[in-house]
Amino acid sequence: MAHALPDEPTSIYRLTFWADALERIIAAASIAALAYMPADAVNNGTFSLRALAVAAATGAGLELARSLAALYRGNPGTASMTRATRAGAAPSGLARFVRGREQ
Questions:
Q1: Least CB-packed of 9, 55, 59, 91 within 10 Å?
Q2: Cβ–Cβ contacts within 10 Å for residue 79, how many?
C-alpha cells in the first residue's frame, strides 16, 4: 500500500519532528543506560547513579545530534535518516538487494 509523503516543510519548529526525535532520544538513552548497568556491576560490584545518568545523557545527546543531522535528509518533518516512499519499503540503497523477494 503506497502512501504520500507529508507535505510539511522541513523545519525543527514542527511538532512532528520533535515527536519523532523525542521518541528516538528516549530509546537511545534507555539503551545506553541498560548497556551501562551490567558493565558497571561486573567491573566493580557497585552501582553508580551518576555514571548511569552520564551514560543515558550521552546516548540522548548523540541521538539528538543524529536527528538534527537527518532533518534535511529523510522524510520532511521527521527525524528519520531514510526517505520512505511507501509503507514497509526498503531505502533505495537497499532496494536492489531485496527486489523480487516481496510477496
A1: 9
A2: 26
